[in-house]
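Structure tokens please, single chain.
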Amino acid sequence: MKKISIIGAGTSGLAAGIRLQSQGFQCEIYEKNEAVGGRMYQIKEQGFTFDVGPTIVLMPKMYQELFEMSGVKSEDYIQMQLLEPMNTIHYPDSMALQISSNLPQFISQLESFSEKETAGYLAYLADVYDRYVRAKNVFLDISYRKPSEFYNFKTFHQLAKLRTLNNAYQSISSFVKEDKLRKALSFQTLYVGVSPFSGPSIYTIIPMIELLFGVWYIKGGMYQMAKAMERRFLELGGKIHLNRTVSEIVIEKGIAKGIKVSEQLIPSDIVLSNADFPWAMKNLIKERKNKGKYSDQKIDRMKYSSSAFIMYFGLSKKYQTTVHQIHFAKDFKKNIDQLFEGVIPEDPSYYLYSPTQIDLDLAPDGCEVLYVLVPVPSLHQTKLVWNNDAIQNLRRQILGRIKYIKGFEDIESHIIYEKIFTPETFRDLFNLQFGATFGLQPSFFQSLYFRPQATMKQVKNLYFVGSSNHPGAGVPIVLMSAKIVANEIMRDHV
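Here you go.
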């Protein structure tokens, strides 16, 4: 039985561990933090329970398939609920648009703009669904080991059909003309940390996935998925070592031989890194010759996703709202441009998440959980310093905006618990290079074949998985990354 040392108990590390353990490998996970989950982390304080990172459940079959392939029923591990409405979008002029997967209900809202806009919206759905199927089957669910697997007639023919060189906003603009609808169909690129005005148009699949497959909620919060994966991995015989920091991937003559933990060598037949790929290249692989094309200089030159400023509030009062809310800035384009120019947006958009609207167990009686996320620049190529003044200024600004929401006027007087995460928190707690919460930016030349792959030709028996690797960021996509790397390991070692 071959032993695999997995670095990091993040989403894809746990998922890959389940797949490999169920195929007869002996997997041991080494995690630097005191609990599993990576960015799918949890805060529990004063009776309040907060999801730290991801909060939106898309493509539930991807979650369920992981348990079912290992021989159990997914409903015995996670309980999912379809959200209706899936989210509410608030515009600066006080108009609100409730996004619903209930088509008759949603159509009536679209028709309030015009029948022409409604037809354009439906045409967008049909067009992007075809592109989604093509991307999933041809590009996303495979690993690129050599140039010929990408540079061929079939690939370029399919890329042309995907129209990947347009940005997301341009692609959507060809279907709908109303600016409010364009924003409603483009902001989701921020789910993977890229601008809708520069990110490849393929990311318009995200709002399509929301509308056609629904937005779901996992009972107990997103962290229950991490706990369910931990449970299944342990049931299969895997081992998890918490509070154990990996300091080096040991490589001898181009072959991974194990890892070092507190200077102790852990011999391994296979090493699988779930650490953020850029961080792992700079910190865990010591010799330049083993880094391949990913020198420290190249890592620093690569493009990184945006980051997040998140406020976790425990409130001593119930507030009536929806689970997910988006609040747009007055000048959305300027907001996004500043986000990727390395400055805190003057007038930021923000996202509210209140799972206690439907899950009362996450807060004391009569209380509410409110998660407030503001997209901000990563620490890459910026002089931003997240000192107390910067944190408090942004906190005051966003709370000032929230207090204008009907029913939330008194929110500040009801905050009885709060915690704030900045890009520096994400950098330090999760070893994310430059605090980029979604890893490498999924620009065209950092996607597909151009993105770090599951394998490295310079080093045998070393594999990578996670959001900075192909196919990219987002929980369903990193679950796909886990499936890809497990298949690659079985291809080489079975």
